[in-house]
Amino acid sequence: MLRYGVLALSLALPAAAPAPAADPERGAALFSECSGCHMVGDGARHRVGPHLNGVFGRRAAGLDGYTYSKDMIRAGADGLEWTPETLDAYIANPRALVTRTRMSYRGMKDPAERADLLAFLRGYSASPRDIPEAPPTAEPTLPAALAGVAGDRDYGEYLASECVTCHQADGSDAGIPSIVGWPEEDFKAALHGYRAKLRANQAMQLIAATLGDEEIASLATFFATHAQQPAAP
Amino acid sequence: MQTRRSFLGATAAGAAALAAPAAIGQARPRLVVIGGGAGGATMARYVARDAGGAVDVVLIEPTRTYYTCFFSNLYLGGFRDYDSLGHGYGGLATGGVNVVHDTAAGVDRDARTVRLASGPDIAYDALAVAPGIDFRWDSLPGYGVEHQNAMPHAWKGGSQTQLLKAQLEAMRPGGVFVMIAPPNPYRCPPGPYERVSMAAHLLTQINPTAKIIVLDTKKSFSKQALFSEGWAQHYPGMVDWLPPSITEGVQRIDVAAMTVETGFDSFKADVANVIPAQKAGRIAEAAGLTDDSGFCPIVPATMQSALDENVHVLGDAAIAGDMPKSGFSANSQAKAAAMAVRARLTGSRVFPPRYSNTCWSLIATDDGVKVGARYEATGEKIASVDSFISQTGEDAALRKQTYEESLGWYAGITADMFG
């Protein structure tokens, strides 16, 4: 992996104000946060989490012999592929991309650290030279604006009527995931993931494209409180 | 055509007893909904639920069990049983809707009353008209309402669907199934082609030498690339789709001889599915809500009739701009209309309406595709702002997931309609 770090560094040198290059050696150290569950490199096999060899360019839930969560399988079938962008988003906040992922990791918040970790991991994928770096505009975590927006429950109730055409209001999970009773932050993160087109489902990308921050916050407020109410008579 | 004036004259006395509309703010205002399908049932349920008893909601629907037209093709293909398509109105009644199993025979928009076929008039402060489609029985020479058993249309849910399935199952080995696909605009744009897929699925198992011929009045159709790919892949050699450039159109149907004459050739059918041209359900026309197209112009933001602010028109009967005629669309429109009518009757808050549609189609086992769009109400019409469609060559996992998504949607929308 070291060689890619050198390459990146040498490419960065001529720039007038170089962005800090991703450092795979620092990434290797950061991987200790992951190595309790994931293996990578020669002889890597599935443990609590799947092995991470060749993860770049792979479809989510794409390995045989590992039991993925239902949500990860859905995400993969929808078309989620592990790219620098989607991996960056996933490492930043796993649930923003795959709501009920089995990866119980709260997320790596520092973009520079994530870049280092990804630089380390890309050394274990084929032709890493062809894998573009994550664009600096990648916005995997909730924008501050969205995190701070207060929801309007009445508005959320009307907006939610669009959701329950497909997502069953009683929380059933057949064919289409349940969305009732989610924590507000998960709800916001998920819709933001669709709006940013990091999550793959076409129908949801379409819905989220026209949801502003206020709409997302209102929906999150409504659904978070909805499940706590007694079912309509 | 009966005019509402003549109706008023005939019923003025009878109307007086029940008919005086409640003045808003003084007594509980009444919403009457005609038609208990995806538009009407949803609207009745949402207004009754969200108004919390502040609005008296009456739903007029003749059938006691509603069989959805959407997913009826899956029954044809053997993927659903018939009973799974049926839904009762008990959930709506429990939810506070006064469900009247009767037929709306007329509407007097000046007196604001609906006359029931059984006699009485019901007064309304607001009316929602959601009757679905009726057929233009004069659109195919030789074919009329008296022929719908010999050649079912099966374009309204229920007994017609059962009949067509029985005829397909009983077809002689190597027989020919002819479908006449309808001209635009019609209910469920991908529906005829999903039906072809489901018939092909059924016949491949029980009658593999059978043929399917589609005589179309259109040059192209919804999800055409996806269906064409699927037919070639799953049912090679079974399906022939013939556009008007080949057939020069259907000229005449001879029901007794089971033949369809086109400008090009005569087609002999063993089973024929004739889907005529369509218009808004009869009551919409009787109420004077239709224009020359046979459908009802509406106000895009609220689904109010362009001709009467006291009336909303929902679903297939409405001219909903770029929105297709589908159960999903009707359900979406009903929520915007419910919000608008509740605001008008009770002063509740109004938010910008959101309109969307997704249509799933099943091509073969675990091979589902979808098309969807979002819409915005402009001053002129409900306009499409963004859309997506499944792609040809998608992998099997995605197609299977798309099919499973449609099952989730069916469960979701029917719960949303009927409670």
TrEMBL record, chain A:
GO terms for molecular function: electron transfer activity; heme binding; metal ion binding. Residues 22-125, 151-227 form the Cytochrome c domain. The keyword Metal-binding applies. InterPro entries: Cyt_c-like_dom, Cyt_c-like_dom_sf, Cyt_c_1A/1B. Transmembrane segments: none annotated. Residues 1-21 form the signal peptide. SUPFAM superfamilies: Cytochrome c (SSF46626). The keyword Signal applies. Keywords: Electron transport, Heme, Iron, Metal-binding, Signal, Transport. It holds the Pfam family Cytochrom_C. This is Cytochrome c. It comes from Rubrimonas cliftonensis.
Automatic annotation (TrEMBL), chain B:
The keyword Protein biosynthesis does not apply. One of its GO terms (molecular function) is oxidoreductase activity. Residues 1-22 form the signal peptide. Residues 161-276 form the Sulfide dehydrogenase [flavocytochrome c] flavoprotein chain central domain. InterPro entries: FAD/NAD-bd_sf, FAD/NAD-binding_dom, FAD/NAD-linked_Rdtase_dimer_sf, FCSD_central, FlavoCytC_S_DH_flav-bd, FlavoCytC_S_DH_flav-bd_sf, SQRD, TAT_signal. Transmembrane segments: none annotated. It comes from the Bacteria. Keywords: FAD, Flavoprotein, Signal. It holds the Pfam family Pyr_redox_2. Residues 30-143 form the FAD/NAD(P)-binding domain. Residues 352-418 form the Flavocytochrome c sulphide dehydrogenase flavin-binding domain. The keyword Nuclease does not apply. NCBIfam families: TAT_signal_seq. This is Cytochrome-dependent sulfide dehydrogenase (Flavoprotein).
